[in-house]
Sequence to fold (566 residues):
Amino acid sequence: MNFWNDPLKVAADWLTGIFTGWGMPSVGANVLVAFLGVLMLITILMVIDIFLVWIERKVVARFQDRLGPNRVGPFGLIQPFADIIKLMIKEDTTPDGADKVVYNIAPLLSMMSVLILWAVVPLAPVMLGVDLNAGVLFIIAAGSIGTLSIIMAGWSSNNKFSVIGAFRQVAVMVSFEIPMLAVLLIPTIFSGSMGMNAIIQSQDIWFIFLSPLAALIFLIAAIAELGRAPFDLAEGESELVSGYNIEYSGMKFGMFYAGELLHAFTFGGFWAIMFFGGYRFFGLEKVSPFLAIVIILFKALLGYWVIMWVKYTVMRIRIDQMLAFNWKFLTPVAFVLVMVTALMNALLRGAPSWLFITGMLLSNVIVAWVSMEFVRSAARQEREKVEGLKQVAEAHH
Amino acid sequence: MTGEQVIFLIVGAVTLIAGLMVVTVRNLVHAALWLVATLFGVAIVYTLLNAGFLAVVQVVVYIGAIAILFIFAVMLTRRQAAETGASVNPNWLVGAVMSVLTFAGLVYLLQTWSGFSKQAAAIPSGFDAINQLGNALTSPTGYVLPFEVASVLLLAALVGAVYLAFNKK
Fold:
């Protein structure tokens, strides 16, 4: 066991040795080492977060045919640091009649709900916080803390716009949790485990090839969970100014903003873990854990790029469209897909892998086609109703 | 005292205080937030008992759904979130006596149980609680009947809610 094969364990053993050498009891040393590990992970994530601001601004600029930040440093790389200094020295305002304690806890909870997700992200086969056997559910649980933080922020600001924004955002998050949880069961069915590492280890064939529809539904639900366009009706600049975070200024606003970017990056990572093999890439992950980290970060960035691509391409939808889309289309499709996948998995358990892949793929295509047929007939009926009304109205004139 | 016991005592104290705050604070939204803290404390107790799955489900269901629903209901139905009337009614003394008696009865019952003062056996390595739970809930020799009855009950509640909310034309 050397450093290059299992760096975390070697470093932890070394540190524990030093601390116990100073006369610390071994339990205390273990707790301190675990604490240092968490601190290191969070620090790295926050540094990545700083550069995500730059990436986001550069990418949106490209989508809108602009240059983006390009003045401060090479390629505008120092721009985010200037932004942070600006956020830090801004006046910290609290609105009149705000519920001060709740108002101040909300941004912390928002950031925490994102950082806590990384406790279950396996960066390499041997580098992960905890291999929780309920890892898939953990994602949803952390999301519900995020929901709580938004409703706290919206309510405690004592502002009508922020309450409406929080209501909308919470409606989106509570609704889209359901299809997300349903499609997260599909990697669970394939791998027979809810743990992240087990899901990655069983992806000899990436799950996107077994269930592309599930990957698509997960992406849509993740975008909704993030509150990004087309589901950014909580921000609705034209109606709500900025949504649940109107009253926040300085670094408290910065927490929401940085949390949102890191959340998007994290869900890119989960998309990669669930459907694109996580840190696996043609056996490269076995060469070195450091290579595995590079692979998973690259895949997470690709997922993040897709989320940005959607955000800056499509426009905002209304809340009734969002609710109808989720409850009348996405949730039923997700549940049917889970049932079909479980059934096919049981039927094809002993089959050779080419038959397994073809069967899974075909069942996905059939589910997608049938659901699109349902949508088409519903749309036709709606259109006929509207056009019939028009004809009646014209006949009266 | 082991580290686990220290953590349990701290978490238990915080949970109890939060539970007391739920019923004593005037502001209903604050009461709901204290309820969240209480439920979170219970989730930590589950974790201490090596029931990680139950802990996560506790957070998903009780904090993610039920507490949020409470907060929504309070915000949508009241103009003033704060309660102005008296926070106790004349029966508070009877209620307090009853709860103390119930607690004493529970402690007495538990003390007659042989496992009351024993240390829990260590969990064997490779023990998968989720697998065991899933098998128990779906096997005919396990709890499949209560599980299915509970699902039918939930379905009935769902149908009832939709029926009540349905706009009769």
